[in-house]
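re: that complex we talked abt at group meeting.

here r the seqs, copy pasted straight from the sheet so there may be weird spacing, ignore it
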Amino acid sequence: MSQSPNNVLTVRGLRVAAPNGAILVDGIDVDLAPGEVLGLIGESGAGKSTIGLAAMGYGRGGCRIIGGSIEIGGTSLMDGSRASREAMRGARIAYVAQSAAAAFNPAIRIGEQIIEGALYHGKMSRPEAEAWKLELLKTLQLPNPETFGERYPHQVSGGQLQRAMVAMAMSCRPDIIVLDEPTTALDVTTQIEVLALLRSLIQRYNTSALYITHDLAVVAQIANRIMVLRHGKLVEEGTAEQVLEAPRDDYTRMLVAERRGNLVGEASDRQIGDVLLDVSGVHAYYGKTAVLDDISCTLRRGETLAVVGESGSGKSTLARAIAGLMPTSAGMISFDGRRLDRSYKQRTREELRRIQLVYQLPDVALNPRQTVGEIIGRPMKFYFGMYDVPKEKAVARLLDLIGLPQDFAGRLPGALSGGQKQRVCIARALAAKPDLIICDEVTSALDPLVAEDILRLLKSLQRELGLSYLFITHDLGVVRRLADRTVVMQRGRIVEQGPTAEIFQPPFHPYTEELVTSVPELRRDWLDDVLAKRQITA
Amino acid sequence: MIQLILKRVALGILTLLLVSALIFAGTQLLPGDVASAILGQNATPESLAALRQDLGLDLPAWQRYLSWLHGFVTGDLGMSLANRQPVADLLWPRFGNTMALAAYAAVVSVPIAVLLGLAAAVRRGSLFDRTINIVALAFVSLPEYFLGLLLILFLSVQFNLLPSLADTYAGMSFPDWLRATTLPALTLVLVTVAQMMRMTRTAVLSVMDQAYVETAFLKGLRTRRVVLRHALPNAAAPIVNVVAFNVAYLITGVVLVEAIFNYNGLGRFMVDAVAKRDLPLVQAAAMVFGAAYVILNSIADIVAIALNPRLRHPR
Amino acid sequence: MTSKLKAIPFSAWLGLVIVTLNLLVFVFGPMLAPYGQNEIVGAPFDPPSAQFWFGLDQNGRDMASRLLAGAQMSIGVSLAASLISFCIGIPMGFIAALFGGWVDTVLSRIVDTVMCIPVLISALVVLQALGSSVPVLIFTIALLDSTRVFRLARVVAQGISVLEYAETARLRGESLGWLITREILPNALPPLIAEFGMRFCFTFLFVAGLSFLGLGIQPPFADWGGMVKDNQQAILYGLYAPLFPAAAIALLTIGVNLVVDWLLSSGGTTQGADR
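got the structure back, here u go
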């Protein structure tokens, strides 16, 4: 790769080591031209954030740059003194973190934090910095830009804070801005706003950017070039079109196929039976605020019902109400024709057995001091009185079923990967031979390809065992591929429900339409299309 | 925020009441009663009855508690059983002595400990940090009398720099007082600095691990500016709590130090009273110590509330 | 396993050696003592010699023998007090955490109030009322100290019982016994063990301190804190006599603290991984 003379950022042979000596980034080259946006794509552990921080000469949590060179606008970052590195940071290369809520100092006004860098580096006088801040806040469409800076971070919303973080990064008019998953923590409807603002800002000031994300569709909207990373190494690099349309490497091809939603097959013919779960007129409150407001829905035997919504929609609360963990104040939940008590404590052992729950975070869902065999075997002993050899055989059969080797029975959860842990959680639920499994965001904490495997497993289990699923998720892609019927929730109410195919086809309910159109697609012109369409309707 | 502070003050007063009830209950644990304990062997039934009435022991416990509490609030702490003098006259001068010694130690130890803790936290993992941690760990483990005796051995017996006994009297000049109390104060400083420094370091480290500190570094700010402008305002409240905890410890830790140096303070006074089983004295001294402790903790909490930006600037 | 042993830092090794030695002295001390603890073998404050390693005390008794014999009282009383405080504090803490509601409120309020009074002051009040004897010492300290154990046990149990694996067990219909013994206790053990070390240190220093004040373990039993008190005046003549028992106290505390420090730092990382 030849080095272009007018690069704003040139990285050669970058190597970064963790405090324990593990190599996190191994021999990476980065070239960034003025005004160019380079997308860094990869799953967790790919080293993409580490590269972004290393480009600023910074190692998080004791990570060290152990090899390679970094040049910003022709000045070497690593050869100079610490002071020269600090003079570069913030001034010529700036950083936007995933969680602005944590990245803003709670004790200082937002405006002060935005202009602090510009004043500290002596780039502007205070009036200049104030004027520039105002321009940025206006460009980023923050409400009341004149007074916005007087507020404290906890006084504004997450989406606004994320935009303020961009303003803070731009305070010194840097050449390069490192965007580290800047929209990942946001709801889809907020994500699209921030994404559009980011793109126009970068174009307007001709800023170069490293855009770090795990979401191919997001990067497709904003990047000129894409680098795909895995385990700290480069998988492939090319223009955005080439990587997305014609990926050369198998790994990239898998990522793209997963994002297009091609992997899980279409719904097969299954036997759908009579009503298994009937929720009618359920209300629930946290203190005085209603978190569930008149919820009614049904789930049939052998069916998958998805509940979708953004954070705060009450979808997880509904799952907990059905499980008996969240007391309801009105309404009725019936299971197989019999009314369930509102608290799990009053339910019979048989009722508890027939509804099982699988959680979002497999790390905390498994007792770290029990072996996989003990974890899966316990429901068998508890509900069916199985002991010794029959129990061990049953555990082995279940491990087979969920696709884990039988010798995993002797392992502790700490020795398992995230995907393997989630499989064990599913096996534990299956061990109770339930009729209904409530899946609460079961794939949200997993990398896309691992999540894909879990979804495939759940699908095949449903075919084999005739299970019913209640699927709680914010991911519309999962819903479309898995659910027979869908409930859309917003602020504790049901907005719309019906067969999945109908929900996701015009004519849309307005909120559903907003949700559907906000989910990024791999098409490079998707963002333009959506913005154009919204302009017309608005 | 004012509401929160008022709530905290009310809680402090309630706590004081509960503490007084607990201390009163604790002194009533004795099987039998105080009167027979005082008169001992040569008690006649008549003298016992007379003394009981004199002490109000014929009343139910809750009435005695209320009258004791009333006395305490109005400044009447009762009469000492051992020498029939008003407790208040004996107690307050010694309480003054104890507070003076504790204040002397605190004035020296708080700034040293906070600065050392801050420095160690900022240079986490450096040689300085590791050394100071090991030294602090050792000092935390040393009992007061071990340090006190070592100080006496070196500073007063071998080199004769300072007096080994902390003799103070009314009307003493300030330099003389300082000379007399430096050894006990130094002992207290050594014991508390280590603990306070370790806790300060932990408090500051938890702030230094926050994402906004990383943001500040990524803005290109120097360590000095990051610590002073971004870390300290957020670490202030936890540091205040650490300091309060250790000053409270100082006030009671004084008991042992007073015994080592024969200092005429409330701690030694209370220990003597316990040995003589002088009930009114013990009750009063315990209540004074308890009140000092509760008030100090309440002040720390109120300062912490006042320093919290989320409470200072509500949505 | 060998790699695990190698991972133990030097300071922790030192601590472990000190603690082990002290435990050996605790068990075998009186048998090893060359002289009886109250046997007068020479003139008061005879300096250390080949025969009497640590010299003689204020009554002319062998210091080394008294140190060995005194370990039984000094360590025994504090060990018993810490064990009892854990037997009270852990169950109460777990119950408060798991039942919540008014049970938790009542227990927590009582404990909060007791903790509002400095431990030394509470102990002095009780000793004033009941007089000082070994059982009174042990139970007073155990009760006062159990408030700290209660707080930790409660917080740890609360932290674990909101985790999904504990919730899964509850949703399965498991009994309280299973929840406590199988889900919570195994995961609460690391912080509780470290706390045991800290509580022992505290009670040990506390008993020694009371004895130093003359309110702890009473003669004729030898104990380290009391020995410091008895020989205190010797320091004014430049004699080391009171420093030996004081150093013995300091050494054991340092040893336990070194071990606890290591447990906490290594426990911290696994705790992080679990969450």
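couple things i noticed - Chain A touches chain B at residues 53, 56, 58, 60, 83, 86-91, 94-95, 97, 99, 102-108, 116-117, 120-121, 152, 154-155, 168 (CB under 8 Å). The mean pLDDT of chain A is 89.
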